[in-house]
Structures
1.
Amino acid sequence: MKRKNFLKTLGLTAVAGVVGTKVSAQNEDKASSKDEQVGFNHLPNKEEIKMNKIIHRANTRGHANHGWLDTYHTFSFANYRNPERMNFGVLRVLNDDTIGGGRGFGTHPHDNMEIISIPLEGALEHKDSMGNTAVIKAGEVQVMSAGTGVYHSEYNKYGDREGKFLQIWLFPNKRNVDPRYDQISLDNIRKENRFYQILSPYQDDQGVWIHQNAWFHLGEFDAHHKDTYSFKMPQSNGLYIFVLEGEVEVGGETLTKRDGMGVWAVNELEFAFNDQSKVLLMEVPLRM
């Protein structure tokens, strides 16, 4: 695919907004009942839905292999267009990317989006129009508030091995803010067999912060451990669970590697880990 066509379909925020608006408009006559579900344009069809949860199995995700980039999309992105899987509330993009040695995303723009990168293996070299040059590696988390507009690039730091990372986009609760960048190491906040916070709306809180009432937690668990997650804002938020490794029992379901599940209308959730597991929790507002 030519570079300009790839960037055109890369899922820039303007496109995401237009698509979301179209889907919402198509369902306007059903809004009174469906708006009580998960956001106004996340209307599942062939996915499992049981009262207050929606399940996205790993093998139902969108997939593209560009040679240098092997990527899986939980929600519609680039050439993967599924109007029934646009987002989970303000969680717009959850991409599971593997980048070839020395390859990466050339300079491209974003605006009015909160962008979180979580390396899983290897390291990425980041450069942006704010003057930041940095390397982020496994065990760190990066955040960028695109705001009024920013250009950046991301490349695999190493030429001799693949790099793997999660690319996550959230719609912000404030538009046209000044662009900003931050990254932290998780070494000092990591806990064994417990969920620990890596992102919140507050500058002085643990982890990075963003312009949204969202909280992210990571957990790395040995087999046969249990833990409970309590919602920060149970009246307005849902929780999207993404299993990075292992097997997890939650909400009456069994989730395995790269399965995702959204849950709402509850105050807390209990997790039981059948195998050594690693899980990312994303609590996000359900409405824009």
2.
Amino acid sequence: MNLKCTGILSNTFKFKLLLYIKIKTMSKKIYLVTILLAFFHVSCDNANDLLNQYIENGPITYAAKMDSVITQSGYNRFRVNIYPATDVNRSYCVLSWNINEGLKDSVKINYTANNFDNSLGGYYTLIDIPSSSDIQGVLEINVQNVDVFDNKSLVQTASAYIYGLNYVSSLINAPISISTGADEIIFEERIGAVGNLLSYEQDNGSFTEEIFVSESSFPLVDAKAGGIIRTKTRYLINETDIDTLEVVEYLETIIPEI
């Protein structure tokens, strides 16, 4: 009889113990869920507050972005051609760029007839870069369209190459040769060269006026034997560039004596 009672008590104890453990486990889960719900509630409130700061005056409105932006490189300057999207509310465009270690500069382009290029069918502006700023190489430009309500479009980026003294100093004059009869000068072809400036010493000791020669050869008339030929090569690095570049120093060649 005692053995049976002991068994019953033992089973009852186990049941109570398991029930206690389950209740404890459920309590912990409920506690964790409560904390998570409270956290999400606070997060949502913060997100709503943040959103309300930006939409309290209505939803954010952007002006239409540019259809396209095309840049052209030049010597200490560049040109920007802009093609705005069709929008009756467009007012002007703002170009901005970084100079001198973070300092910014910008220019405003009004959508007026004075700034419209009929041949290209778009608006444009020429921007000079002071040589004192030492801006050379690739320059990144930010472009934003602005409508009549002063809404700005999302920023578009473009880049232009600014040729400066460093680049020009790296250019080399085209080598020349002189015909056997010393009556013709022949220019060696160079990539990007569009011609050469030429002046030479004549029999009377004076130099001819400097002329630009786009051909590969040029006749020497009344050239002084032992006299000097001065040449300087002119380059157009890219067909779309707005400036040609000339070598800094002249190449001097002696006219052979026959």
3.
Amino acid sequence: MMNRRFRSLAVLLFTLLSVAAVVPAATAQPAPMIPELTGIRVGRHATFDRIVLDLRGGRPEFFVHQVPQLIADGSGLPVSVPGNYFLEVRMAPAAAHDLDGNMTYTGSRNFPTPSLTNVRGVAITGDYEGYLTVGLGSANDRWHRVFLLDAPTRVVIDVGH
């Protein structure tokens, strides 16, 4: 009788310890990393201009809008970028800095693109509260497409000539 009670108690104790060991491991996973901008590349192709936003981390969602003018997130002030037509690409979650506030993208935040046919300039117009916004100025109102690539993560913006 005592041996049976001891054995039942040992099984119960082993079960409780096993559950206690597994539950914290399942709930103590790190928060997902916010994708961080590390580079902006531009290139001219036969029928379109391409802007590539290099990211470290996961995949952000993105929202694309043609806008009459590029506006800085937070301040609401206009952002001067060469061109007659403007495209805004907003990514979330995403940032151009890490969680400690260190810049992960150290290149120019507003630059002309003389090597491209239609796109005249690129600017980071926002890096605020998990939203990263990049604006493009183009000479002509043409088609555009935006898509994600993996390994490494990239947001690709194509603008027709």
